[in-house]
Amino acid sequence: MNNTLPYRLSRPSFLHALRVLASALLIACAPLALAQQDLNWVTTWSAAPSSLPPGLLPPEAITDAYDNQTLRLIVHSSAGGDVVRVRLSNTHGNKRLQIGSATIALQAEGSAIVPESLTRLTFGGEESITIARGGLVFSDPVAFTVPQLSNLAVSLYIPAPSGTVTTHLAAAQTSYVSAPGDFTGSVPFNTAAEIPVWNYLTAIDVGRSDNITTIVTLGDSITDGVGSNANLNNRWPNYLARRMLLDPQVPDFAIANAGISGNRVLQENSPRFGENLQLRFERDVLALANVSHIVLLEGINDIGMPALMVPGEEVTPEEIIAGYRQIITRAHARGIKIIGATLTPFEGAAYYTPEGEVKRQAVNAWIRTSGEFDGIIDFEIPARDPSHITRLVPSYTTDNLHPNDEGYKAMAEAVDLDLFR
């Protein structure tokens, strides 16, 4: 019997084969190795879904949003880091969502990316994943340098009919949809359409070796940045992030934006304005990485919308305050400090009424005097017209409800940073 192998590796060839095998194993195990590092994860960017589940949609709205297309979603970081993971959500899908491939890169300009930054994302070591209806997935941690205050491009290939889309509508940022095909690995992007929304991507976390934490700014369109110039990242949370991260005398924080245009503390009635704050609080805030502080600015839509859009859903100041108390209790149960922000003036807005102004003043009086929040940011003061205190400063707004870039900057500069020390 001949027990010899059909061929025999020379010693140099054998050593080379071992090195190749070892390299392959290291590459395959890289996400696991990164996950096992003693990293401090913080959420550098987030977008809360403003869509509604299919059960709250009319039948004609339940359609396939994408099929054999690539999304290139542009977002702006707060804190930086050298390890990254992304969160993809099918929260409001009516069926399973297939992600065929995904990448992250630094944005160059428009839909173009910086070539050397292009990095493949994986999910459990695989390049593709199917997200259950209503589900959420994390990508594997990957070595990727996220500069602070920088624009990133996350590309997602949707190979099959997607079902209803989980989206954040008021992005104040242009993203891109491709012609048919997988362009996740392409530097120039085959753009078929520009979109002012973020689809499926709900958060980006960075891993760091220090002990910084995340501040979540929680609210409605004023936190979402409606009224600011698109693609300039001039929402008030962006201005606050720049104050904190560019001042060496101030501790660094990641800042995640959980604002949704049109959102209300207690109710919802539109597929554009998201689920009510009580429902979404766990998903959009508590589930983010290493949250230490929340800034809550919400309630003006609870006051104003019933007068214009949803008669019969009027609420009292006491009901709004009861909603605040529940959010405060839930934050404190997680050891998170929550800072209350006063509601800004809205006389002249489409849904203003004198009765609504009385409610706003009552809510603000409670925020200032109750002592139930861990701190107060009095946004009303820098935003209001000194000569007509129930209106915004005229140069700060075009609709008497939403500040512009100048107004958002004034709000951020009024924040006492000692609240976060």
Describe what you observe in this structure.
By secondary structure, the protein is α+β, with helices and mostly antiparallel strands. The chain has two domains: 44-201; 212-420, Rossmann fold. Helix content is 25%, strand content 27%. It has nine helices and 23 strands. The strands form six sheets. Strands 2, 5, 6, 7, 11, 13 and 14 form a seven-stranded antiparallel beta sheet that branches. Strands 1, 3, 9, 10 and 16 form a five-stranded antiparallel beta sheet that branches. Strand 20 (337-341), helix 7 (354-369) and strand 21 form a beta-alpha-beta unit. It is globular, with a radius of gyration of 24 Å. The N and C termini lie far apart (79 Å).
Supply the key terms.
disordered N terminus, 2 domains, single chain, Rossmann fold, 421 residues
Backbone CA Rg: 24 Å
Helix content: 25-40%
Strand proportion:
25-35%
- CATH architecture name of the largest domain: 3-Layer(aba) Sandwich
- Number of beta strands: 23
Low-pLDDT sequence parts: 1-29
Q: Give the overall form.
A: globular
**Overall mean confidence score, pLDDT:** 92
What is the fold-level CATH name, i.e. the topology of the largest domain? Rossmann fold
Number of helices in the DSSP assignment: 9
**CATH homologous superfamily (4th level) name of the largest domain:** SGNH hydrolase
Tell me the count of domains. Answer: 2
- What distance separates the N and C termini? 79 Å
Structural class: alpha+beta
What is the top-level CATH class of the largest domain? Alpha Beta
* Major sheet summary line: 7 strands, antiparallel
